[in-house]
Amino acid sequence: MKIDHSLPLEYSTDQNQYNILGFWIFLGAEIMLFATLFATYFTLANRTGSGPSGAEIFEITPVLIETLLLLTSSFTIGLGIHAMRLGNKKAMLSFFSITLLLGLAFLGVEIYEFIHYVHVGAGIQTSAFTSILLTTLGTHGAHVTLGLFWGLFIILQVKKRGLTPQTANKSFIFSLYWHFLDVVWIFIFSFIYLKGMM
Amino acid sequence: MEFLERFAVPHPSIAIYASMVAIGLTMIAIVAGLTYFKKWGYLWREWLTTVDHKRIGIMYLISALLMLFRGGVDAIMMRAQLSAPENTLLDAQHYNEIFTTHGVVMIIFMAMPFIFALMNFVVPLQIGARDVAFPRLNALSFWLFFMGAMLFNISFVIGGSPDAGWTSYFPLAGNEFSTSVGTNYYMLAIQISGIGSLMTGINMITTILKMRAPGMTLMKMPMFTWSSFIANVIIVFAFPVLTVALAMGTMDRLFGTQFFTMENGGMDMLWANLFWVWGHPEVYILILPAFGIYSEVISTFSRKNLYGYKSMVASMVVISLMSFLVWAHHFFTMGQGALTNSIFSITTMAIAVPTGVKIFNWLLTMWKGKIEITTPMLYSLLFIPLFTLGGVTGVMLAMSAADYQYHNTMFLVAHFHNVIIPGVVFAMLAGLTYYWPKMFGFMLNERIGKWTAWLLSIGFLLAFMPMYITGLDGQARRMYTYSEATGFGPLNMISFVGAIIMAVGFALIVYNVYYSTRYASRDIGEDPWDARTLEWATHNPVPEYNFAVVPEVRSSEALWDAKKHGHVLFKDRNYKKIHMPNNSGVPFIMSLIFFVWGFSFIFSLWIPAILATIGILVCMAHRSFEQDHGHYISVEEIEETETKMRGAK
Amino acid sequence: MKRKWMALSIIFAIATFLTGCEPLLVLDPKGPQAARQAQDIMLSIGIMSIIVLVVFAMLIFVLFKYRASKQSPDYEPPHMEGNIWVEAICVGIPVIIVAYLSFVSVQSNYIVEATPQGYEEKEPLVIYASSSNWKWHFSYPEENIETVNYLYIPTDRPLEFKLYSHGPITSFWIPQLGGQKYAMSDMITTLHLAADAPGEFMGRNANFSGKGFAENTFEVTAMSPTEFVEWVDEVQETAKPLTEEKFDELIEPGHLGRMTFTGTHLDFMPPPEGHNHGSSHADESIEDSHSEHEGDHSNH
Fold this sequence. Notes:
The structure holds three protein chains of three kinds.
Chain A: H1 14-44, H2 54-57, H3 60-85, H4 89-119, H5 128-161, H6 165-197
Chain B: H1 2-5, H2 14-36, H3 40-48, H4 53-82, H5 92-126, H6 135-153, H7 182-210, H8 223-254, H9 268-302, H10 309-322, H11 338-350, H12 352-366, H13 375-398, H14 400-406, H15 410-440, H16 446-472, H17 489-519, H18 558-565, E1 578-580, H19 586-602, H20 606-625, E2 631-633, H21 635-646
Chain C: H1 2-20, H2 32-65, H3 84-112, E1 125-132, E2 135-140, E3 145-148, E4 150-154, E5 159-165, E6 170-174, E7 178-183, E8 189-193, E9 199-205, E10 217-223, H4 225-238, E11 240-241, H5 244-250, E12 259-262, H6 280-289
Parallel strand pairs in C: 1-5, 4-10, 11-12
Antiparallel strand pairs in C: 1-2, 2-3, 3-12, 5-8, 6-7, 6-9, 9-10
Helix pairs in contact in C: 2-3
Main location (chain B): membrane
Membrane topology (chain B): Multi-pass membrane protein
Cofactor (chain B): Cu cation; ferriheme a
């Protein structure tokens, strides 16, 4: 493995550069995935059948809390990567841990939100609208869940192996993923919740 | 007992029981053979765990050929059933299952792996790379495809085949009208192999963008690499749509969601839209690499550079963009109104323009050339007129008002076979013959090869030209029978004869492989075709590390440059140790777990499904923690291999 | 050049076959819409044949002229980059052809999606055609009768079919009167047809809908308006009323022969509310199809 020291650690080997480019392309595919879900959501948003509409079930408080948590976590992981670039392993690990805790809190509120929906009679089987609503939110939630495990693994690896080209590369890619989830959430917040409540 | 009943085939027949026995015996024979010849270790070490792009390519190739025969048998049965009016060879249910599996197998499990086979094998060689960017991921892609294919293929002996057409339109494919697990197989098997395709897309794009030999700018890439690049970009943007559609279909069937149902707001045409938003780009995913192969072959055997390289690239870029803007032409008859139909009609016809440019460029490549008709060239020369027929009928279908008459008829069936067979299948066979010496170190027999090409073309014309006519005479597709009064009989009989001739042609390919393996000369040198591009600058068959020294290129025809203009490809003659990725069994094991995962979902076996899900996550976690820095091939080893392959030089 | 001969002889054989036998249904139109479509088809076949011939001719030319066997062994083909003018022609001519066909296509789209030409002044007959596995139900709301698996229509009057399905997506198709259109469970689509002359036509579901799909056909009889009125009167007198129970029985999966009823199922099982609008015309006609048809269609 040739290491090019003139580049940031996460870009320092050829394989690292492949990984980052490959992950960007993967995010392109993810954009298509969520775009398809959004397109389906817009198509089905008014097809509520005998079930409730968005305006009837959406609650602003948990959604605002979720948004706040996720936006903050996106900020903290940015700080984490900044710390990584400075070679400050301890600070980086702290910021990553905070990020994951915020993510966990987000997930907690989202689970509460789901229970609420089922409680008010908007389960996944109720109507085309609830099916796509819960599938879209659920797909995002599943991404966050997977991200929590992934992030945890990375923290463990950085702790054990230190900041090597490999761990730095993984951490950087994870941060891209986490920012992406944040961006998706902004779309969910604007086009599903805000639009639905108006 | 009640538990086991779900695995029974709901609509059995002698043929299905016979297949069960045949499958059982084959599996016993394979296991016994491997044990007897003590090949388990070899199989595991050299193939199941390999991450070498060339071996993965070859495995794709073998799978694609196997699936070609599976889908071909389906085709023969369909043509046999329709060869006479009121035929009773198959009943409606079996016929429905057969045309469904024929379509899925041929597109997803034959054409896709065939193009992946050639891409995997050829692209890294054409750009002078040692492997793809993510060799491990590449193995996972292959095994996911393979397990998806196997999962799909066991459907007809366990639980019943899908029977709602390869398009699987809802609500027909919903629980209400498709009560067997067949459509579950469709949803999950395609899902699993689709994930593999998506990862191949990411892998190939990264490889092509990042791993080209020094001097190879984007506009100096060989045309097949360009076409693969574009096809993979389409894959990355099209396959997620299929992923979502299949996931929603699966949820409708297994978890009672209401996406495509008939009540509570479900929307059946949403499936059709999503399916074709993937489905139409998919067509170009298949045809662009085929165009790439033709470009290589035609240029090589015209002994002339490819005419209009820039316009070839431009036309592919235009095609890739437009392929996402034409999907509604698959259902002009949905009643979306004259305006929508007009828009999609125009975009569809417009896509014929860049395709036409390519045809003219190939003709101009041959112009003033020195045409030598080898088997790959023969396929390409047959492709041009036959594909033109398919192309112009495509333009006819694009006229939406007239399409009201073509839609859902044999005319349409004739059209898409007319583009896919001469377009994709001939290209793959041309590519197979062209790259065979690169893969195995000997040539396929030319005489048998040419016979095959002629038989396939004649068979093709006989099988599909009559369908244009019966289509215009009102024969709808997917009808398992028709009455004598319709008068479709004689033409369908001609189709059947054509199908038999094609079957003979395909059988000849197998015979050719056998014959050439036994009798062909192994002394073919490095450049048996007098080729032009970089992949022919290394040995046949290719050593593990592809190129002992990284080549430097200055044009899209690097080898031709070296041969005719004295360009030095390998400047530094001193070998250095080469870094190579390690083999791994995880992709195979993970895909096997995916197989169990899919199977459990198909039959709603929730405990195995949860266990398999955990298993998949554990494999991913393992990958995260794993530290694999690959290994080095030492200078001595390289010297040894090079001497052996080159003869002492 | 065996291949060329073969291709040409096959095309020739097809041509002979086409002219020798009875005309193909689609190319033997009996109504204005089908006539327009057949005209488009023949036009596109004509233009496309020219393209095919050009490509074939070019291929034959280069194969004859530039075979290796016809050239001296030391001939070196020249290196050729693209030529801007040649490629402009390769793009330009197809663009012109496609533009022309697009023009025709767009025009035809608006023609087939509207009341047939020459029939604009006449009051359309509205027929609800709904499919169930594997039958067709034809409801004549104005005449207040319903038939199964057969369709009687008057000539010389525009027909407005309102299509929907009680099950899988089907496609309503009478090749000699005009192209097909989908019938779906959650919306109504409108198909405009007309028959120029009396006759019997084949009609079928063209979209695969499961086991009984092949037999999912119906017979169409076009008759003069007076005969049609007579038939309606006769049905009113002789047929039994269609009850809800009876209709539930009818839409069970299976095949049925021809059946006739008075009353329509639209009264107790209204068609889906959504509709895919073909044109503004279709929009309006759906709105007033729920009330009485007063013949204000002549405005269009």
